């Protein structure tokens, strides 16, 4: 087994009405002045925001609200939150919503004690030494941000979407109630299912030796999502299915499914530029580029893709021609994404075929303007990235 360090300190409180414990939990962590950060009107209409603020007030905490988070959360709102926290001497952040709200809260948490611009962290100009504590009440099973060290933010100027990882922004706790997912539209649910699978696949298809326990955990998680994801789309109030998917979302991104592996993350980098330029849903963007990426790189490790086909999809392993099993596994994954309503091409994602100049712009941005290559299983430079975008049409 390869060497690894596993650090996942987030306390998870899972079950019905978990959100009502917000006040007591924050108080136990020393919080007193709390910023509740959320997205649009759904948390208000559902009564969730009222339940959360009531819990905070019952615990004797002072509560401030900052809504307006959008998918592919904007740096400008995070900057607004940073100023609010400084002005009101806020000492704890509570994100209520999907991964975007949680990622935005993490960005705020990083920015409050930092003297420079918080964007510095996302473009690797600085390294944080402090951050406000964050907690989360997720309303979407997708990003796994409620237990991860990751934050992704979009700078509107230049349409640049960038991610940052640091232990300082792991949530102190997360309150996970599967019933909060009941009202999600089918498309959002499917985007979340795709994101969960991709967080696992990005770790699974990466260089490294054999970590059999890690691989089996990843394969079991993928099979669980494949089983219950379509149920959530068709039966939105199926508590068992929502529970399985919600828990899978957290496990897929707390590093458990990739211990001993470096990860690839090329598909995420390809999607980040799509999200930045076109403001598409993250899961949908991943579904649109992953099949093209997989077909482009699969010969780097045919046996890995063949194992995926056999152990996840139940495809008989062709020992003499593993490329056939590998190809079938990619096709099955693509059909699964399509079956839950996800686009599997850029044309399907955008509703039109992007022009070559757009693909070139995506490519240049993906290389950070010629300063990097992406991927682990296969290093992808400007030409390779362009060819993948092109084959994804």
UniProtKB/TrEMBL annotation:
UniProt domain Alcohol dehydrogenase iron-type/glycerol dehydrogenase GldA: residue ranges: 9-178
Keyword Transcription regulation listed: no
Claim: Phosphoprotein is one of the keywords in the record: no
Keyword annotations from UniProtKB, A to Z: Oxidoreductase
Pfam families: ADH_Fe_C (PF25137), Fe-ADH (PF00465)
PANTHER family noted in UniProt: ALCOHOL DEHYDROGENASE YQHD
Protein name: Iron-containing alcohol dehydrogenase
């Amino acid at each position: 087994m390869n060497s690894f360090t596993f650090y996942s300190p987030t306390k998870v409180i899972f079950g019905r009405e978990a959100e009502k414990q917000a006040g007591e939990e924050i108080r136990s962590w020393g919080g007193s002045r709390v910023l509740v950060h959320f997205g649009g009107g759904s948390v208000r209409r559902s009564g969730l925001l009222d339940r959360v603020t009531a819990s905070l007030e019952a615990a004797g905490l002072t509560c401030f609200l900052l809504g307006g988070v959008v998918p592919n959360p904007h740096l400008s709102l995070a900057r607004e939150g940073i100023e609010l926290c400084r002005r009101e001497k806020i000492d704890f952040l509570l994100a209520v919503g999907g991964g975007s709200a949680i990622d935005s809260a993490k960005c705020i948490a990083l920015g409050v004690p930092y003297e420079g611009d918080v964007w510095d962290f996302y473009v690797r100009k600085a390294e944080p030494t402090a951050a406000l504590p964050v907690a989360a009440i997720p309303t979407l099973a997708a990003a796994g941000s409620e237990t991860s060290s990751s934050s992704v933010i979009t700078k509107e100027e230049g349409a640049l979407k960038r991610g940052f990882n640091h232990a300082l922004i792991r949530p102190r706790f997360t309150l996970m109630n599967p019933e909060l997912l009941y009202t999600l539209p089918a498309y959002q649910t499917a985007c979340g299912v795709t994101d969960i699978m991709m967080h696992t696949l990005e770790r699974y298809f990466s260089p490294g030796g054999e970590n059999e326990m890690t691989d089996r955990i990843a394969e079991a998680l993928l099979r669980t999502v494949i089983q219950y994801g379509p149920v959530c789309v068709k039966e939105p109030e199926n508590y068992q299915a929502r529970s399985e998917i919600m828990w899978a979302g957290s496990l897929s991104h707390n590093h458990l499914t990739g211990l001993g592996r470096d990860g690839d993350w090329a598909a995420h980098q390809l999607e980040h530029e799509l999200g930045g330029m076109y403001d598409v849903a993250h899961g949908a963007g991943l579904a649109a580029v992953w099949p093209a990426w997989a077909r482009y790189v699969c010969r780097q490790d045919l046996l890995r893709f063949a194992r995926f086909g056999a152990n996840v999809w139940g495809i008989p392993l062709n020992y003499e021609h593993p490329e056939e099993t590998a190809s079938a596994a990619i096709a099955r994954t693509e059909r699964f994404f399509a079956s839950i309503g996800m686009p599997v091409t850029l044309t399907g994602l955008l509703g039109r075929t992007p022009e070559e100049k757009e693909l070139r712009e995506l490519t240049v941005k993906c290389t950070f303007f010629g300063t990097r290559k992406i991927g682990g299983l296969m290093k992808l430079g400007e030409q390779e990235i362009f060819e993948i975008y092109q084959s994804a049409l």
